[in-house]
Amino acid sequence: MKKKLLYKFLFYSFIVIVALVIKILLVNFKVPIAMVFVELFMTAFCFFLIFNIVFKINNTKKQEFEKERKELIDFYDIKIKHLESIINKNENTDNNNSQIMPAEVFGSFDNCNTIEELSDFILHNISKHFQTGWGIIYFLDESSHSYIVKSHVGIDNSIKLKSFSENESINWRAIDAKKPIEIEDIDSSYFKIESGTGSALPSKLYLLPIVIDNRVVGLIELASFLSINIHQLWEGINEYIVNNSILKIEYADKENI
Fold it and tell me: What mean pLDDT comes out for the span 198-213?
């Protein structure tokens, strides 16, 4: 609508200009009619040229605007698809984790002849399958009645990790309950103090007790950037570890703590 009005305005303006030019040339200057037509032709040509230039400039700007608009749409479309793929991946990961069997996670414990070897093997496989940020595994030292660090992943070796006894750590909640615990939105200072990790800190903490005959002989502490459902699967995982490793032999016929 605006373009039509603009064209009409330019057309009528041109007619008025032509009429004025003819009047001036014929009446005031008494220019021959042939010269009048030559002047009219030149005026029309110049007018057309100017109009064409303005039209092309506007058209170029419009094309540039449409190009930028399309690029922005494509850019955000890619971003949206990327976010959707991440969401779908996380959903698929959760679904896949819910179907994981302990045997798929660990396989055989035949090469784990010591608690240290078993600890390394358990943490390595859990971290691989559940994509955790870092992990620590503790086992009970019966002489001191404390839980000693036996292995860790994702934590620099220069960081000194502490053992813990009754009520000395947040970990004791899982020891006392004898059940896995998921802790969400834990204070970032916990990770800095306990692990010395960098600025990108996990937001989920999982405390997974290793239980033999209603007795907690070990604890796995996992940190993750995403929610994982290992705590929901832990009963089956714990049973598989206990029944297929050296733990029953290591902690056989011991007095309850």
Answer: 81
Least confident of 15-29, 59-73, 88-102: 88-102
pLDDT averaged over every residue in the chain: 75
Residues 237 and 134 in one domain: yes
Query: Quick one: which of 183, 184, 112 has its CA closest to 151?
Result: 112
Same domain, 166 and 50: no
Question: By residue range, what is the domain housing residue 209?
Answer: 105-250
Q: How large a percentage of the chain has pLDDT more than 90?
A: 22
What is the rounded CA–CA span in Å between residue 175 and residue 178?
5
> One-letter amino acid identity for 249?
I
26 and 147 share one domain: no
- The pLDDT, as a whole number, for residue 127 is 86
Could you tell me the pLDDT band of residue 255, with boundaries at 50, 70 and 90?
Answer: very low
Q: Indicate the pTM of the whole model.
A: 0.58
Q: Does 256 map to a domain?
A: no
Q: Return the minimum-mean-pLDDT range out of 34-38, 145-149, 172-176, 243-247.
A: 34-38
Count the domains in the chain. Answer: 2
Statement to judge: residues 201 and 136 lie in one domain: yes
